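B., you asked whether I could sanity-check this one before it goes into the benchmark set. Here's the sequence:
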Amino acid sequence: MRVYDISQEVFGCKVFPGDPSPQRNVMMSISKGDVCNLTEFKMCAHNGTHVDAPYHFYDDGKKIDEVALEKFVGYAYVAEHEGDISAENARRMLEEARKCDAKAAKRLLVKGNATVTLEAAKVFADAKLELYGNESQTVGPEDSPKEVHLTMLGAQIVLLEGIRLGEVPTGAYLLNAAPINLGGADGAPCRAILISLE
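And here's what the prediction gave me:
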């Protein structure tokens, strides 16, 4: 069994343009005579590797603590793509996933510098994906991600953004991307891992 850490380190992570970067404050330090080391931190719920809940773009959508954990944990398929994902590309990825492992086809992770187009988002929504993950800090075009988010989150697809798949071969895995339980939040950071099925 091999475990792949597909998360970014928080304090050095990429952030979406305009979002605040995570900040660390050392409150106590043994080297300075304190009883223990103690860290305080401040961050945006969408920094680094994180998941989006429907509430991120829908005021009446489920908040992160209302989304079933089963969405974040289960079999997943790692595909690979560079550039815009067309509807045809999306259908091909889903077919590859089904051929590899039908259970894994409900959670799709895309390796590479890929952008979900609105047409691809509709294909994923029609396929009733549980989760979609990408290496970018957002699905859809960075300068106009709203429509893609509305389409996918409206179909109850959990979005896992900011993952790192460089060392992960394409294929089926067991995914754990359970978020921090931030009650009432629109998203949350997570420590996403993939476990090899071999």
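One thing to flag: The mean pLDDT is 96. Otherwise nothing jumped out at me.
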